[in-house]
């Protein structure tokens, strides 16, 4: 996977492999889908260092990134959460994946917001391949 991973590092958001591994992918006529699963590295606060922490599952978050080869790119992040043994409290790592208030990857949202996105025609392309708000993921 080393070669595949190094190629994916060229197109995925910077630093993504610090916290995520590639779990799968697929493409169809309109979408390129990449699934990334959070590594099992629990965020352990100082006061819980001596307690057992158990992975309890995932929550999926899907965001839109820069289009690739004429397809909308959807990144599904399988966010892991953990439970401290004997407590109700769930732990989750705070990783900023999308631009606040959007389902867009941060760099992509900034690009579309700036003049570069409008002048390049990419924002028009994105509007074409994007689903209406009622049908979005």
Give the topology.
Elements: H1 2-11, E1 20-27, E2 31-38, E3 53-68, E4 71-84, E5 90-91, H2 106-113, H3 115-119, H4 122-129
Parallel strand pairs: 2-4
Antiparallel strand pairs: 1-2, 3-4, 4-5
Please characterize this protein's 3D structure:
This protein is of the alpha+beta class and 137 residues long. The protein has one domain (2-135). 23% of the residues lie in helices and 35% in strands. It has four helices and five strands, in the order H-E-E-E-E-E-H-H-H. Strands 1, 2, 3, 4 and 5 form a five-stranded mixed beta sheet that branches. A hairpin with a 5-residue loop joins strand 4 (71-84) and strand 5. The two termini are 29 Å apart. The mean pLDDT is 78.
Features:
alpha+beta; five-stranded mixed beta sheet; elongated
Mean pLDDT: 78
- Secondary-structure element string: HEEEEEHHH
Secondary-structure-based class equals alpha+beta
Helix content bin? 10-25%
Compact description:
By secondary structure, the chain is α+β, with helices and mostly antiparallel strands.
